[in-house]
Fold DNA-binding transcriptional activator of the SARP family.
Amino acid sequence: MEVRVLGPVEVVVHGRPVRLAKRQHRLIMGILSIQANRAVPSARLVELLWGDRAPARPRAVLHSRLSELRAVLRTAGGVTVQQAIVTGDDGYTLRIPNRMVDAHLFEALVAESRTMNSDMQLRDKLRQALRLWRGSILGGWSSTGPTDALLRSLESARLTAAEDLYEAELRLGNHTSITDEITALSAAHPTRDRLTAAAMLALHRAGRSAEAIGVYHQRRVWLASELGVDPAPALRHLHVAVLRHDPALNRQPPLPGSERPTPT
């Protein structure tokens, strides 16, 4: 069995997609997969599924949804697949090899990227990891309570991997090929200084210095209006260097605030 949560939840058994018709089935499968091989307490599942709008007998409804989900899995793959969801003293565990869940495979590939000996190998491994993302985690589901932490760590890991990737591409001299995608990603995440710096440098090296300056000004305005702060010193220094057309920007040194991953 394979489970995909980096986008709409998908389950594949024996190479065939399994239809999970009910939204709660998809969410339960996604949550258990993100927490694969770790028990998720019933109370936690109730909180994640319903927040402050739980039904009158939430544990009974949860038990019913798990029974339905197991029946679907049994139909798709037999008893062995059905038994992957294990009932504990007060919760449930999905027993599955970690690499059969795309979120855990993503984390493993990112960890492998840090052992690469060249920027080209690093770039290829990170591209492989980021290709696993098909959209928002769990199809865009988000809780209104503290349970958002379940998704935030994965999203943060995705952005860090993207930052590592683009910095490797810049060191390889591939600024022209990444300008549009990195500019869009940095605009969507204005608090990520590494993305902003990489976008500015890529645009400058591609002969689009005016756009690089525009990226800086957009971040400065956003930070001032939303957070009441100025850009970090490293970004301000990069802005000045772009304005001066500093020749050093056309070389391939580490970006402000970044370091080349060290193999372990």
User: Anything to note?
Assistant: The beta strands are 2-4, 10-13, 16-18, 40-41, 85-87, 91-94. The first strand starts at residue 2 and ends at 4. The domain at 173-264 is CATH 1.25.40.10 (Serine Threonine Protein Phosphatase 5, Tetratricopeptide repeat). The chain has two domains: 1-142, 173-264.
